[in-house]
Sequence to fold (149 residues):
Amino acid sequence: MKRGDLLRHLRKHGCHLKREGRSHSLWTNPATGALEAIPRHAPLTTDVVIKKRRWSAFYETELDAHLRSLGTQYIIVTGCTTSMCIESTIRDAAFRDYVCVLPADCTGQPARHDATYSGHAASLKIIEMSFGWVSNSQHIRRALAGSDD
Fold:
């Protein structure tokens, strides 16, 4: 399942969506040269848009206050780059007592040409061991739908 499919499924099941700052669902329109949102990933008018200022979505933003006002306990985190933005956001969320779930197929990062290890894989292990749950979008989708298949 792709990130867009998970977003549509979450909306269908009444989940509140938070989008931070620059979305990685952007493309450069060759006709105009402008940076535009991929239409299927663009925020809806009902989505809350929070401007992200640093790697963590919690750093100097109103995200924590907004989530607390909704009584949020669980957060599903998607995006780029696993070892920077994703891990930083999940760590900050865990420090604030949220339970985080990371669909590993909805995050990633480019591999360095000289790397002897995968930063993505290392972050998944760190998150799983200390800060949250690592799953995949299909399992999350089934859990939200109440399906055991």
User: Anything to note?
Assistant: The chain has a mean pLDDT of 79. Residues 82-95 form the longest helix (14 residues). The longest strand covers residues 99-103. The domain at 3-17+52-145 is CATH 3.40.50.850 (Rossmann fold).
